[in-house]
Amino acid sequence: MTIVKSQTGVTKNEPIVDKIIFTKLENLLHKMAFFRGWRYVAFVSGFVGFLGLALYPIAIAPMIDPSEYRKIQKEARKNIRQEDIQPGNMKIWTDPFGRKKPESD
């Protein structure tokens, strides 16, 4: 291994040594690769499927059927008068066009 002094005054190895080190590192990384081909596709698909299964009951199911959450909200707010908790004596929001609110569960 020969050390060469560059124009900036910094010593460094010859390019041949760098090439040998890079080749050994590349071979090591090549051997360490975990998934290739169908195994990679299976790993990525499994990860995405796991995220979907974890997020479904939290984010997707309430948007598909909100009736259960409306019942819970109605029960929780049963004894609360909105006029009493309105900040700054503000008027409760009403529809400016006078449309009737549809009755829901």
Explain briefly what this protein structure is.
Keywords: Membrane, Transmembrane, Transmembrane helix. About 55% of the residues lie in helices and about 5% in strands.
Q: What does the model show?
A:
The chain crosses the membrane at residues 40-64. It comes from Helicoverpa armigera. The protein has 105 residues and is mostly helical. It folds into 2 domains: 1-33; 35-77. The protein is 56% helix and 6% strand. The chain has helices at residues 15-32, 38-64, 67-76, 82-85; strands at 3-5, 11-13. It has a two-stranded antiparallel ribbon. A hairpin with a 5-residue loop joins strand 1 and strand 2. The longest helix has 27 residues, at 38-64. The chain is elongated, with a radius of gyration of 33 Å. The mean pLDDT is 79.
Uncertain regions: pLDDT < 50 for 5+ in a row? none
**What is the general shape?**
elongated
The total number of structural domains is 2
Helix content: 55-70%
| End-to-end C-alpha gap | 82 Å
Strand order, largest beta sheet? 1-2
By secondary-structure content and strand pairing, the structural class works out as mainly alpha
Largest sheet: 2 strands, antiparallel
Strand content: 5-15%
The Cα radius of gyration reads 33 Å
The counted number of beta strands is 2
Helix and strand succession?
EEHHHH
Number of helices: 4
Overall pLDDT level: 79
